[in-house]
Amino acid sequence: MNPTPLSAVALSRLRRVLLLLACGFVLWLLWPFAIVPPGHRGVLTTLGKPSEQVYGEGIHLRIPLVQALHTMDVRVARSEGEGEAASKDLQAVRVKVILNYHLDPAAAARAFRDIAPSTPEVAQRIIEPARPEAFKAVTARFTAEELVTRRNEVSEQIAQQLREKLARHGLVLDEFSIANFAFSPSFMQAIEAKVVAEQKKLEADRDLLRIQVEAEQRIVAARAEAEALRLQRQEVTPLLLDLRRVENERLAVARWNGQVPTTSVGSGALPWINLPAAR
User: Fold this and answer.
1) Is the pLDDT of residue 279 over 50?
2) How far apart are CA 110 and CA 134, in angstroms?
3) From its phi and psi, is residue 272 left (phi > 0), alpha (psi between -120 and 50) or beta?
4) Rounded to an integer, what distance in angstroms lies between the CA atom of residue 231 and that of residue 225?
5) Three-state DSSP state, 242
6) What whole-number distance in Å separates Cα of residue 144 and Cα of residue 89?
7) What is the distance, to the nearest Å, from the Cα of residue 227 to the centroid of all Cα atoms in its chain?
8) Which of 58, 70, 157, 164 is 20 to 30 Å apart from 144, CA to CA?
9) Which residues contact 123 (CB under 8 A, 6 or more apart)?
10) 3-class SS at 224?
């Protein structure tokens, strides 16, 4: 049975579509250009063998069917993780750390060849085991209290160990921080009790200092008052004595009745002069 004209048209269209797909596939296979996007580096492989050269961003030539250009991300990435460790005084501590890293562009070919064909896989294989090893080694150097009071120093030492381990595999540590230290509930209660005791001691010391200052102020005030009284006595007492003497003389005159004594008591005879009475 012969096909209908409609079926012949559909078959012709299908052939055209298949031909276009085949041409596109062949063109893709034979496409001699490869593009490295921004923030990446390219590693060229020839029949599966990577070259030592690292290709920068942009378009590059390759041999179709023989060479392939693989890209490695060199942008800053973030990694975080938690782990348990023991302090110097054998206190269990759980640490959460966050770090930013990137693949060294110059080491892209080496990382591709020796570790993994993508940056996330490289980071997973290198950072995941290095991170807990670093903070276990460092936390064992400090007591649990020092992990809190000397947190910056602990963070710097962990970062230094991670930086050295990552650098051996072409990774660069950009930033590192300790997000949290978590201790056992009993240890946290002990720390809280110690803090409360220290606060009370500081309050007692402040009260004692205040009492001492107030006592010294009272002593200084008393000394100043005594000095003022002493100066007042030195300056005013002679004047008061003169005033008292004058007052005594006035009182004696006021009590005199106008009669001159006619006798005297004593060994020496004193002459008396009789004055005429006032009329």
Assistant:
1) no
2) 24
3) beta
4) 10
5) helix
6) 7
7) 54
8) 164
9) 77, 79, 101, 171
10) helix
